[in-house]
Amino acid sequence: MSKTRVYQLAKELDISSKELISKLEEYDVEVTNHMSTLEDDIIEIIKELYKSNEGKSESMDSTEDENAIGLPESISVKDFCDKIGKTVTDVMTKLVSMGVFATINQEIDFETAEALALEFNIDVKLEGAEEEEAEYGIEDFEDDPKDLKDRPPVITVMGHVDHGKTSLLDAIRETNVTAREAGGITQHIGASEVYVDGKKIVFLDTPGHEAFTSMRARGASLTDIAILVVAADDGVMPQTKEAINHAKAAGVPIIVAINKMDKPGSNPDRVKQELSEHGVLVEDWGGDTISVPVSALKGEGIDNLLEMIVLAAEMQELKANPNRLGAGVVIEAKLDKSRGPVATVLVQKGNLKVGDPIVAGASFGRVRAMINDKGKNIKKANPSTAVEILGLSDVPNAGDTFNAVKSDKLARQIGEKRKAKFREANLNSTTKVSLEDLFMHIQEGEVKELNIIVKADVQGSVQAVKQSLAKLSNDEVKINMIHGGVGTVTESDILLASASNAIIIGFNVRPSSAVSSMAERESVDVRIYRVIYEAIEDVQKAMKGMLDPEFKEVVIGKSEVRATFKVPNIGTIAGAYVKEGKMARNAKMRLVRDGIVIFEGDVSSLKRFKDDAKEVQTGYECGIGIANYNDLREGDIIEAYIIEEIKRD
């Protein structure tokens, strides 16, 4: 439609031309500089549509607006007084009687405002609530049974930290994940697909330690069957009990894999008896839970386990509609320096295609590429398919739902609306503390709250750390998680920690030298960990006054990899330039790439030209070999560090 006719029509309908243009866009009518022969027909249709819609909404809104005052999701006490026409004194008195102590300029949420308004017999409503509830543009309808097709089962592998979950998956996938994991503990949820007699099974691997309770619970809620791995020589352990509870809470059937049957002390009957004490009765004992003896190490019983999975899946008659816009859950998300935000998602219904506009939590975008578990690019993902997607505006949270929508504009609108909603709920602060002197501050009554900032390499770990630490709050000190994010510790994190008197806990990340120096200047306590439960234990000990740091890591030098050389029978050697401190033969080496710790190990060789060297100082070049590691790349940072014993008075 031409711009001239738009202005004429807007005047006739008594609305702004801007409002009319946005209304036209909803009906895919393009506004141009040229006249069209169809314009008169379009104008008549728009008049009818606009007037009928406006009539309905006006009649509905008028009755509602007569009784209810519109309030935003959060509002200052002063603005609330103005809205309801009451004095500040009256409102503050009611707030105190409700147990809410707020200043005149402090924000209160809608729930508090609603309860407060009821005290004055005034009805209020959430502004834009109708739009929020419907979140128009996201498909939400019950599928017709005729449209449903069989879909593959999604399996969660659960169990205690060292009972062989990853080894069992390795035996199934014929890959070796354990060698790449820190201390043999799986730190992030992964997804993989296997085929049994032509039938696909999707496996989600959840971490084993109790620190990852939230991640495991999320994994169980995504899945159709839970494989409970119990070591035949160890029996039911604390994390085994957690796994049982999560599977039961999610209503997921359990198949017990009794692992390590090849070990001399294996006793499957003891395992079955201990399981029965926790409400899991296996078929051998008259129950309905399938149990399969396996040995992940020797590959025994794996085929039988897979057959049982297929059988259990067939009994559930799993179905989904593949012919609708894709929807599902974000399993994991991270920020990749070269690819931007990367999310691993599980498609639960519909199909997701490359090019689809998408909204995931508060992130939005268009699917630029999809990569399956084998690392291959694919064009389309059907139900029960786990894929990595690129093209989002931000890193979504693990556990967020995602939806494909009809247009980029719609995805942006929904994402921006959600982002504004999330932005309104953040920040807390108090006085400068470190873990060492935390107990002293508690005893002196100075600290009632401990503010913590969490940074980790992937979103799932951020959530696991935050939730685990939040549970440590007690009567003496409350733990506030004021910020959590993906990526290394940055200068803005230090500024936030300094302003809000927080300590920073980093998991599997390394701050740069500039950031470390800034932390020292600002007296911000930055703690870096590679295993989450060590962070939890440290905070717990500090709160109880038991923190006793006996050893301290001291970084003695940093060098940058400027070239790599492959040496026969030795491996890859880094041609490095020492930027700070020194590289020493007796030190340990840490490889850092884009702020993320990739590997830690010993020095296999340190040379200056062709000669062996005990140490190489700042400003010199050297050749560095790291034992049992060859994936060195230009631009990597190699940190040399030693462990020093701290003598306490």
UniProtKB/TrEMBL annotation:
Its main location: cytoplasm. One of its GO terms (molecular function) is GTPase activity. The gene is infB. GTP binds at residues 159-166, 205-209, 259-262. This is Translation initiation factor IF-2. Residues 150-319 form the Tr-type G domain. It is found in: Cytoplasm. Belongs to the TRAFAC class translation factor GTPase superfamily. Classic translation factor GTPase family. IF-2 subfamily. The lineage of its organism: Bacteria, Bacillati, Bacillota, Clostridia, Peptostreptococcales. Keywords: Cytoplasm, GTP-binding, Initiation factor, Nucleotide-binding, Protein biosynthesis.
